[in-house]
Write a structure and sequence with these properties.
Layout lengths: L10 E3 H8 L3 H9 L7 E3 L2 E5 H9 L17
Length: about 80
């Protein structure tokens, strides 16, 4: 749709973000304490996640399998 890129991304609370990522809310809490995981925002005492940032973070978590990994030079 026209102008859709200008719309703000949806914000998710911890429970919603955990469900989206397929982890438990306590996992997100642990990641926050360890300064790992996706970026989050504090609104007073509320923790919110930006859906676009969750998607971008998730995309960086991919692992190459032997079928998709780039071949090293000299390997057979």
């Amino acid at each position: 749709m026209k102008g859709e890129s200008n719309m703000p991304s949806k914000k998710l609370n911890t429970q919603e973000a955990a469900a989206y990522l397929g982890v438990k809310p306590c996992t997100l809490e642990l990641w926050r304490c360890r300064k790992k995981g996706p970026r989050y925002f504090k609104l007073g005492s509320r923790v919110m996640y930006d859906l676009a940032e969750l998607e971008a973070w998730f995309a960086t978590r991919g692992v190459h399998t032997t079928d998709t990994a780039p071949q090293l030079r000299g390997s057979k």
